[in-house]
Specification:
Strand order of the largest sheet: 1-2-3
GO molecular function, one term: ubiquitin binding
Protein name: Activating signal cointegrator 1 complex subunit 2 isoform X7
Distance between the termini: 97 Å
Radius of gyration: 52 Å
Helix content: 40-55%
Domain CUE: 476-519
Shape: extended
Structural class: mainly alpha
Biased composition (Basic and acidic residues): 677-699, 725-740
Largest sheet: 3 strands, antiparallel
Strand content: under 5%
Organism: Mustela putorius furo
C-alpha cells in the first residue's frame, strides 16, 4: 500500500519520482490499494473507515478503595489492556492514527470512561498497592499523550492536516467538548500547565465554535451551582427541624462522628460556594441574590445543628445533674431555649465527668477548623459553655479548657470581633434572692422554630463576617467598597460607603440586607447612585508646608508685600559671560585698600619743635650688656642680611597691570622648570639592539654546541613580494608568528622608567 496524492498512482506505474512533489495534508491525501473483491488497484481517501484497524478498546474502571486482592488483580488486568491499547495507538503512523481516532467508537468510550472515573487528587482513598500506583501513572501518561496528539494538527512537514479540516474533524466527531476540556484541566493541569495551555489554545483557535459551546455551558454550570445550594439548604433545614423536634436522635448522630464531619464540611464547602457566587456576580444578579440568601440560611442551620448536638450530648446532662452549682451564676440563654423533655437521664449527680470529657474531645478535634470556630463562636460563644462546665465540676481540666479557648481566640486573628453583645443577649434582671433571671420568658421549641425561620439572615448568621470593627480607611476601605461593587455594580460608591459605615464595615451584611431589601430606614432614603465624596484634609497645606524658602523676602504666603524691583522674569539680555568678566567695578573698589599695604615709611619727618620719639636703639644706662660679646648667629649658614632684610612687597596678581611679554616669559620659565623636573631616562637598561645581538650570539653558540642546524634569517625574509614564497619560508614565518610571544619583551625601557618613577628602583 502506498500513500500518494491525486493522480500520483501514475508515478507508481511509470516509476516517476515523487521527491519534488509538495506534501499534501491528510484530508486531501489519496491512497492507492488493491481491492479485496476485484483484485484491482483503486484510489480512496486516506481518512476512510476502511483504513481503521479492528481493535476493541475496553472501558476503564477505577482501582478498588479497600485493596482486596481479587479486586486489585481484576483492576490490574483491565488497566493493562487499556494501557497496551493506548500504546499501540500512539505507535501508529499519522494516517492510521487519525483513522482509528475518528472511526473507532470504542476508543472514544474508553477515553471518556477514564476522564469520568479516574480518582481525583481530592478524593479519599486508602493507600493503594505499589503495583496499582505504577499502573495509574502509566495510564495517566498514555491518556495525556493520546489527547495531546489528538489536539495537534501538524506533526511534521510531511504529516499534517489543514487547519480548517482539523477544526471540522474535532467538532463534528465530538473528539473534544467543553466537559472533556474541563476534565483535562483538572487531571493534567498540575505539572503540565504550559503544554496543556498550548493544547487547548490550539483547539479553540482552529475551531472557534467551541467558544459558543462554552457560552452555552455557563448557564448549565450556574444551574449546577444553584442545585448544590438548594440541596444544601434543604438538607440543612430538614436535619435542623428533625433534631429540634426529636433531640434524642443526637446520640445516634454522634455515633458516626457527626460533629467533626459537620465542621469539616462547613470549613471546606461554605467558603468555596461563596467564592463561586462572587465569581459569577455579573451573570444573573437576581438569581445570585436568591442563592446567597439560601446559602446564608444554610450556614446558620449548620451552626444550629452543631449547637443542638453539643447541648444534648454534653451540656444539658451536666445542667440537669448539678443544678445546685448554677445558683448565683448566669445560665446561657441558648440553654433555656431547649426542650425539657429532651434532657438525658443521668444515674447520679456525680456522673458528669464523662459528658465534660466528651465536650473537650469534640472541640479539641475542631481546633484546625478556623472558619467554623469563628462563625460558631459569634452565634454561640464557646466561653459561655466552658463557664457552665466550670460551675458544674470542680475537677475540670483547666489546661485543656484554656487551650481550647485560646484556639478559639486564635481563630479570630485578622478579623475584627463583634463587641455588640447587647443586641444578641436579652437584658437580665436580678430577683430579691440574688439569682439572675432572664427578663424575657423562655421560648419553647415551636416559637423558637418560627422565630428562627423569620430571622434566617440575622447578623449572627453571618458569623465572623459580621464583625464590627473600628472605622477603616485608605486601601482597606477601597477594597471593601470594591468587594460590594463587584456583586452590585449599579450602586454608587457613596451609597456603599454609607452602608458599610452603618453595618460596621461588613460587606457581606451589606450585600445580604440589600438583596433582601432590609436596609435601615436611613439608608433606604439615600440615592443608590450616590458618588463618593472626598473629604478635605483638616490640616491646611500652607500651615503644614516646610521648606528652605519659608519666611524669606519672596515668600508671598508669609508676607503681604514683596519688593518687585528685585524680581526679574526671564534672562537679562545685557548680561552674558563676557560682560560679566569685563565688569571690574569690584576690583576698582578694592584697589585703594590694597595699595595701602605698599606704603613703607623708612624715616618719619619731624616738624620743628617736636621731640624725638623713643627708639629701641637709644642708649640706656640700665641696659644689661652681659651677653653683648656673644656672636649670636655668627656660625649660621644664613647671612645677616637675610635675617634683617625686609621681604620685598609684591603686588597681588589681580591688581597688577599687564606688561607685554611678561606672560610669555613666565610660560617659558615654567616649561624649562618642567623639563628640569621631568624624570631623566634610566640608562642602566642597555640598548635593545645590543641585547638582541648578544642573545643571538648566545643562541648560535648554544646550537653549535648541540649540533643543531643553523637557522638562516633569509628563510623568514623570503623572496621579494610578487615572486611567491617557498614552503620553508612559509613554515618559518608561521613558527615565528606562533612563538614570538615566548621570547619578546616589549617596552622594557618604558616600564623600567615607570618603576623608577614610582620608587621601586633607587635612582
Amino acid at each position: 500500500m502506498e500513500r500518494t496524492g491525486p493522480m500520483s498512482h501514475l508515478d507508481f506505474w511509470t516509476g516517476g519520482s515523487r521527491s519534488t512533489m509538495p506534501a499534501l495534508p491528510l484530508d486531501q491525501l489519496q491512497i492507492t490499494h488493491t481491492d479485496l473483491k476485484t483484485g484491482k488497484l483503486r484510489t480512496s481517501p486516506a481518512l476512510h473507515p476502511e483504513q481503521k484497524a479492528d481493535r476493541y478498546f475496553v472501558l476503564y474502571k477505577p482501582p478498588p478503595k479497600d485493596n482486596i486482592p481479587a479486586l486489585v488483580e481484576e483492576y490490574l488486568e483491565r488497566a493493562t489492556f487499556v494501557a497496551n491499547d493506548l500504546d499501540w495507538l500512539l505507535a501508529l503512523p499519522h494516517d492510521k492514527f487519525w483513522c482509528q481516532v475518528i472511526f473507532d467508537e470504542t476508543l472514544q468510550k474508553c477515553l471518556d470512561s477514564y476522564l469520568r472515573y479516574v480518582p481525583r487528587k481530592f478524593d479519599e482513598w486508602v493507600a493503594p498497592a505499589p503495583e496499582v500506583v505504577d499502573m495509574q501513572k502509566r495510564l495517566h501518561r498514555s491518556v495525556f499523550l493520546t489527547f495531546l496528539r489528538m489536539s495537534t494538527h501538524k506533526e511534521s512537514k510531511d504529516h499534517f492536516i489543514s487547519p480548517s479540516a482539523f477544526g471540522e474533524i474535532l467538532y463534528n466527531n465530538f473528539l473534544f467538548d467543553i466537559p472533556k476540556i474541563l476534565d483535562l484541566c483538572v487531571l493534567f493541569g498540575k505539572g503540565n500547565s504550559p503544554l496543556l495551555q498550548k493544547m487547548i489554545g490550539n483547539i479553540f483557535t482552529q475551531q472557534p465554535s467551541y467558544y459558543n459551546d462554552l457560552d452555552e455551558t455557563m448557564p448549565t454550570i450556574l444551574q449546577e451551582l444553584k442545585d448544590i445550594v438548594l440541596y444544601l439548604c434543604d438538607t440543612c433545614t430538614t436535619l435542623w427541624a428533625f433534631l429540634d423536634i426529636f433531640p434524642l436522635a443526637c446520640q445516634t448522630f454522634q455515633k458516626h462522628d457527626f460533629c467533626y464531619r459537620l465542621a469539616s464540611f462547613y470549613e471546606i464547602a461554605i467558603p468555596e460556594l461563596e467564592s463561586a457566587m462572587k465569581k459569577r456576580r455579573l451573570e444573573d444578579s437576581k438569581l445570585l441574590g436568591d442563592l446567597w440568601q439560601r446559602l446564608s440560611h444554610s450556614r446558620k442551620k449548620l451552626l444550629e445543628i452543631f449547637h443542638i448536638l453539643i447541648n444534648q450530648i454534653c451540656l444539658l446532662p451536666v445542667l440537669e445533674s448539678r443544678p445546685c452549682r448554677g445558683a448565683g451564676r448566669e445560665v446561657p440563654d441558648h440553654l433555656h431555649r431547649a426542650s425539657s423533655s429532651a434532657l438525658l437521664s443521668c444515674s447520679s449527680c456525680d456522673n458528669i465527668q464523662g459528658f465534660i470529657e466528651e465536650f473537650l474531645q469534640i472541640f479539641s478535634s475542631l481546633l484546625q477548623e478556623k472558619r467554623f470556630l469563628r462563625d460558631y463562636d459569634a452565634l454561640f460563644p464557646v466561653a459561655d459553655d466552658v463557664s457552665l462546665l466550670q460551675q458544674a465540676s470542680a475537677v475540670l481540666d483547666e489546661t485543656r479548657t484554656a487551650y481550647i479557648l485560646q484556639a478559639v481566640e486564635g481563630a479570630w486573628e485578622g478579623v475584627d470581633r463583634r463587641k455588640a453583645t447587647d443586641a444578641k443577649d436579652p437584658p437580665a434582671a436580678e430577683d430579691p434572692n440574688g439569682v439572675i433571671a432572664l427578663a424575657e420568658p423562655v421560648e419553647g421549641p415551636s416559637s423558637h422554630l418560627e422565630n428562627s425561620e423569620e430571622d434566617e439572615l440575622s447578623p449572627q448568621c453571618m458569623g465572623a463576617a459580621a464583625a464590627l470593627g473600628p472605622p477603616v480607611g485608605g486601601v482597606e476601605l477601597d477594597s471593601l467598597i470594591s468587594q460590594v461593587k463587584d456583586l452590585l455594580p449599579d450602586l454608587g460608591e457613596g451609597f456603599i460607603l454609607a452602608c458599610l459605615e452603618h453595618y460596621g464595615y461588613d460587606p457581606e451584611q451589606v450585600i445580604n440586607n440589600f438583596l433582601e431589601e432590609r436596609l435601615a430606614p436611613a439608608l433606604s432614603q439615600l440615592d443608590r447612585s450616590l458618588d463618593r465624596q472626598v473629604k478635605p484634609d483638616p490640616t491646611p497645606l500652607l500651615t503644614s508646608r516646610h521648606n528652605v524658602f519659608q519666611n524669606d523676602e519672596f515668600d508671598v504666603f508669609s508676607r503681604d508685600s514683596v519688593d518687585l524691583s528685585r524680581v526679574h522674569k526671564g534672562r537679562r539680555k545685557e548680561e552674558n559671560t563676557r560682560s560679566l568678566l569685563n565688569d571690574k567695578r569690584e576690583v576698582v573698589a578694592q584697589r585703594q585698600r590694597y595699595e595701602q599695604y605698599s606704603v613703607v615709611v623708612e624715616e618719619v619727618p619731624l616738624q620743628p619743635g617736636e621731640g624725638l620719639p623713643y627708639r629701641g636703639d637709644d642708649y640706656e644706662d640700665e641696659y644689661d650688656d652681659t651677653y653683648d660679646g656673644n656672636q649670636v648667629g655668627a656660625n649660621d649658614a644664613d647671612s645677616d642680611d637675610e635675617l634683617i632684610s625686609r621681604r620685598p612687597f609684591t603686588i597681588p596678581q589681580v591688581l597688577r597691570t599687564k606688561v607685554p611679554g611678561e606672560g610669555q616669559e613666565e610660560d617659558e620659565e615654567e616649561e624649562e622648570e618642567a623639563e628640569d623636573e621631568a624624570p631623566k631616562p634610566d640608562h642602566f637598561v642597555q640598548d635593545p639592539a645590543v641585547l638582541r645581538e648578544k642573545a643571538e650570539a648566545r643562541r648560535l653558540a648554544f646550537l653549535s654546541r648541540k649540533g643543531y642546524r643553523h637557522e638562516s634569517s633569509t628563510a623568514v625574509a623570503g623572496s621579494p613580494r610578487g615572486h611567491g614564497q617557498t614552503r620553508e619560508t612559509t613554515q618559518e614565518r608561521r613558527k615565528k608568528e606562533a612563538n614570538k610571544a615566548t621570547r619578546a619583551n616589549h617596552n622594557r625601557r618604558t616600564m623600567a622608567d615607570r618603576k623608577r618613577s614610582k620608587g621601586m628602583i633607587p635612582s
